């Protein structure tokens, strides 16, 4: 409990915040009354503090004719209420909590209470274009590290009270704010309850990124495939929750989690929905092909050259064989080496500071592309195969999907080297069986292809015109899955009187 | 574990296509020569009848499997005894399919790889699929792989059109005659008759009332492709096909388009592998689940290990491909399994079951 004597309270608080150089204690005399301001430097809008709170108190003193008012805190509260949300607290622990949550605590002589005012004002990044998901056409705003900015970006797009945002905190030390957002009436209750339960179940000391949450709530922790989607784009979050999915905002990270995730989301880029559907369909088809190439191409090459040369047309086979002449390694080893180097180059390119990053790729291209081939250590075809695979893996719109496939390429390559096509088919079927049995928050991973939901295929292998997508995905959304009324195909005749 | 009617359709279709197209064709052409496609038509109608009987039987007790309703129809002990032939069928045929498919892979792709390695990989696949997903997972696999198989077969047939000469089916009927054509129908019939396993599957359906039409369509689709590929093979090779081990496969080898699409046989092997994979997983599931129900074991997954061990040993038993691909079908499957398991027991159960239901009313 707070004491009426401010100096006693101060001693206790100073004890709590011992060695916390960023916690500021400021005593002032407003008239004859001693006041103590406690806040964390850098988390408070000091300009606001000086001008709106301190200046009136110091220079103008207490407002006249206020003797009959119950307490000083009442006056301060009344004065402050104009600028900030204020709360009266009575416990030391509440004061400490308020200070740590970037609020201003005001303790006043003679009263066993303190005021906690919300004067938040820390530095934050402005809304910028998202770095991980880029679109030529589409909104340019991306999430920032500030939770409230992020939720506001979503609220601005869905201006309906049906958009709910439930907040909670996770992490015994970090006390990170988490917001679960969904659209009431569209979301499936079973999924929502599952999300709530899984988030509440988390016991951890700190949450520094949404990846922490992801690892605790995902369905299949050992699977290489992600069952939780992350995005930096507010429009993706809006589109997803309008399909009945649930978004999880975590403070201090621009990455928002979306559940449930299905396999096909991996091929859907935001721009598909902003460009004309014909082009989107075409691009999606290319993506599907590249996606499979990024997994199968090196292994098929190895299998075909070592086990089934009859698969390759004769002329091509001759040129491959000629290029491979004098290369000391078998094709598998060569492919594994090159894939390994490629992954290394990519990692080096990402992690290094930008100016050096480009140097890495130049060196990599020169050394491996030119010198190694000329020296006869590796063959030119494998360079082509590996670089094509690399390009193919970059064409996957969702980064974490690409990671899964990049990893699975290696066991497949290994089996291709041992058993040829049969090995490739074996690994492919193993992956397939795994995928078929995956679930994300109760939703089968391969819906709507397996289990088949015929009406929902409009957004999977191709992108149908918007006026034909009248229903939301059946398994994902709850009861009301009607999106728009039918018969909206644009035509010059529509709307006119037919004569 | 529930399966949808779409899944039943694709399960039946994709399971039937692979082995039938690969193995039932050449004995049939041997008997009926260029009229083998008529044999296929006869086999198709006979098999559709089998499916009809089997599905009608399982619809008497739509939420139960063969093991359960046979005990209701014939009483506990008699019901348990009468399904023993089915266990014999399931266990042996799973082993034999595993062996036959591995033999085929061995001959077609890997002459130097040890046979047991091929068998082991296939075994891992089927155990993984069955253990992880049960009938639901297998259903989803077939739902996805089924269309892939159908599309691939269609593409291959279209690509082979160039090598076909329609005069090779002439003269129709004259050369072989009715008896030979009927004899030629036996082999495809014995393969397609495996769809009697529907008695174990209807119990899992969420909408059993759709079982009859979907199962018939599924088997029907497989039959259409069987007839199509048989015609294709006859049009390409004539009666020469009877001397080939895998005539359909050789027809694919013959494909050459624009000097570039050649030797696509290895691709077809992979597609065909998908069909066999579904068939093997289905048999593994049925054998394990059936055994569990028969013995009263609650966790049927435990029995997968038992089943797969037996299947692995059975697959290694035959000395060579002749034993698995010729002796087993002609000496065991056709004289015993076809009349007893595919015709006799289902008909008996259906008759007794229907009479019992009538009496109960």
Q: Quick recap of the structure?
A:
The complex is a heterodimer of chains A (499) and B (361). Chain A has 14 helices and twelve strands.
Model description:
By secondary structure, chain A is of the alpha+beta class. Chain A contains 14 helices and 12 strands. Helices cover 44% and strands 12% of the residues of chain A. The mean pLDDT of chain A is 85. The longest helix of chain B has 46 residues, at 115-160. The two termini of chain B are 31 Å apart. The A-B interface holds A 307-308, 310-311, 313, 419-426, 429-430, 432-434, 436-437, 444, 446, 449-452 and B 4, 6-7, 105, 109-110, 113, 117-118, 121, 124-125, 128-129, 132-133, 137, 139-141, 143-145, 259-260, 262-267, 269-270, 273-274, 277. Chain B: Its main location: membrane. Chain B: It is found in: Membrane. Chain B: Belongs to the amino acid-polyamine-organocation (APC) superfamily. Spore germination protein (SGP) (TC 2.A.3.9) family.
Rough outline of chain A = elongated
- Lateral strand order in the biggest sheet of chain A: 1-2-4-5-3
Helix percentage of chain A: 40-55%
The ordered H/E elements of chain A are HEEHHEHEEHEEHHEHEEHHHHHHEE
What is the chain-wise order of helices and strands of chain B?
HHHHHHHHHHEEHHH
C-alpha termini separation of chain B: 31 Å
Poorly predicted parts of chain A: none
User: What is the strand tally of chain A?
Assistant: 12
Supply the number of helical segments of chain A: 14
Number of helices in the DSSP assignment of chain B: 13
Mean pLDDT across all residues of chain A, rounded? 85
Oligomeric form: heterodimer
Largest interface: A-B, 26 and 36 residues
Assign the structural class of chain A, choosing from mainly alpha, mainly beta, alpha/beta, alpha+beta, or little secondary structure.
alpha+beta
Parts with pLDDT < 50 across at least 5 consecutive residues of chain B: none
């Amino acid at each position: 409990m707070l004491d009426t004597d401010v100096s006693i309270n101060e001693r206790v608080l100073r004890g709590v915040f011992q060695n916390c150089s960023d916690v500021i204690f400021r005593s002032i005399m407003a008239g004859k009354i001693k006041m103590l301001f406690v806040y964390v430097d850098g988390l408070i809008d000091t300009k606001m503090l000086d001008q709106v709170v301190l200046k009136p108190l110091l220079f103008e003193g207490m407002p006249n004719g206020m003797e009959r008012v119950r307490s000083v805190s009442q006056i301060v509260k009344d004065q402050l209420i104009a600028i900030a949300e204020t709360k009266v607290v009575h416990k030391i622990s509440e004061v400490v909590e308020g200070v740590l949550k970037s609020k201003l605590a005001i303790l006043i002589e003679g009263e066993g209470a303190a005021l906690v005012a919300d004067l938040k004002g820390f530095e934050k990044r402005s809304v910028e274009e998202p770095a991980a998901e880029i679109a030529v056409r589409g909104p340019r705003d991306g999430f920032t590290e500030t939770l409230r900015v992020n939720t506001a970006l979503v609220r601005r797009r869905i201006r309906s009270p049906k958009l709910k945002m439930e907040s909670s905190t996770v992490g015994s030390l970090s006390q990170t704010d988490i917001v679960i957002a969904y659209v009431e009436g569209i979301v499936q209750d079973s999924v929502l309850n599952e999300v709530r339960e899984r988030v509440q179940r988390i016991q951890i000391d700190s949450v520094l990124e949404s990846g922490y949450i992801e690892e605790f709530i995902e369905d299949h922790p050992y699977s290489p495939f992600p069952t939780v989607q992350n995005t930096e784009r507010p429009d993706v979050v809006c589109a997803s929750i309008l399909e009945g999915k649930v978004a999880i905002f975590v403070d201090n990270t621009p990455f928002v989690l979306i559940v449930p995730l299905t396999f096909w989301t991996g091929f859907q880029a935001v721009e598909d929905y902003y460009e004309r559907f014909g082009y989107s369909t075409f691009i999606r088809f290319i993506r599907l092909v590249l996606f499979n190439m990024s997994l199968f191409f090196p292994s098929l090459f190895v299998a075909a050259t070592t086990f089934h040369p009859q698969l390759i047309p004769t002329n091509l086979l001759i040129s491959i064989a000629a290029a491979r002449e004098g290369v000391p390694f078998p094709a598998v080893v060569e492919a594994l080496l090159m894939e390994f180097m490629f992954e290394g180059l990519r990692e080096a390119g990402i992690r290094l500071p930008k100016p050096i990053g480009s140097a890495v790729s130049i060196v990599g291209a020169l050394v491996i592309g030119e010198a190694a081939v000329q020296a006869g250590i590796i063959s030119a075809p494998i360079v082509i195969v590996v670089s094509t695979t690399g390009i193919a893996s970059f064409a996957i719109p969702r980064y974490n999907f690409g990671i899964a496939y990049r990893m699975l390429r290696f066991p497949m390559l290994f089996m291709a080297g041992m058993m040829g096509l049969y090995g490739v088919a074996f690994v492919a079927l193993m992956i397939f069986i795994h995928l078929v049995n995956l679930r994300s928050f109760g939703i089968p991973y391969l819906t709507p292809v397996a289990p088949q939901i015929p009406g929902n295929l409009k957004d999977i292998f191709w992108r149908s015109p918007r006026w034909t997508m009248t229903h939301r995905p059946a398994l994902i959304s709850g009861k009301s899955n009607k999106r728009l009324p039918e018969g909206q195909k644009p035509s010059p005749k529509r709307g006119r009187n037919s004569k | 574990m529930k399966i949808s009617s779409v899944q039943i359709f694709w399960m039946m279709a994709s399971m039937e296509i692979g082995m039938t197209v690969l193995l039932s064709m050449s004995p049939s052409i041997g008997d009926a020569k260029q009229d083998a496609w008529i044999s296929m038509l006869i086999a198709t109608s006979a098999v559709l009848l089998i499916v009809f009987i089997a599905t009608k039987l399982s619809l008497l007790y739509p939420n139960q499997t063969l093991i359960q309703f046979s005990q209701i129809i014939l009483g506990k002990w008699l019901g348990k005894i009468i399904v023993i032939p089915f266990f014999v069928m399931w266990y042996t045929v799973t082993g034999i399919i595993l062996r036959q498919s591995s033999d085929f892979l061995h001959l077609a792709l890997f002459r130097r790889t040890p046979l047991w390695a091929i068998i082991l990989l296939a075994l891992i696949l089927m155990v993984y699929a069955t253990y992880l997903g049960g009938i639901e997972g297998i259903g989803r696999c077939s739902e996805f792989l089924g269309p892939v198989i159908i599309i691939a077969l269609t593409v291959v047939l279209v690509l082979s059109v160039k090598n076909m000469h329609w005069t090779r089916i002439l003269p129709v009927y004259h050369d072989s005659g009715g008896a030979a054509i009927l004899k030629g129908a036996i082999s495809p019939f014995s393969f397609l008759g495996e769809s009697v396993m529907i008695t174990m599957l209807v119990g899992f359906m969420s909408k059993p009332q759709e079982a009859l039409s979907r199962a018939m369509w599924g088997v029907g689709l497989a039959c259409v492709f069987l007839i199509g590929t048989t015609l294709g093979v006859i049009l390409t090779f004539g009666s020469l096909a009877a001397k080939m081990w895998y005539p359909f496969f050789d027809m694919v080898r013959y494909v050459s388009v624009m000097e570039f699409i050649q030797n696509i046989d290895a691709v077809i092997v992979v597609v065909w592998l998908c069909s066999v994979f579904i068939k093997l997983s289905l048999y593994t599931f049925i054998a394990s689940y059936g055994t569990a129900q028969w013995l009263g074991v609650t966790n049927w997954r435990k029995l997968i290990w038992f089943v797969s061990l037996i299947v692995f040993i059975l697959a290694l038993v035959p000395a060579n491909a002749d034993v698995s691909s010729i002796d087993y079908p002609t000496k065991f499957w056709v004289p015993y399994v076809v009349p007893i398991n595919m015709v006799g027991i289902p008909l008996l159960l259906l008759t007794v079951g229907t009479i019992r239901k009538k009496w109960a009313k």
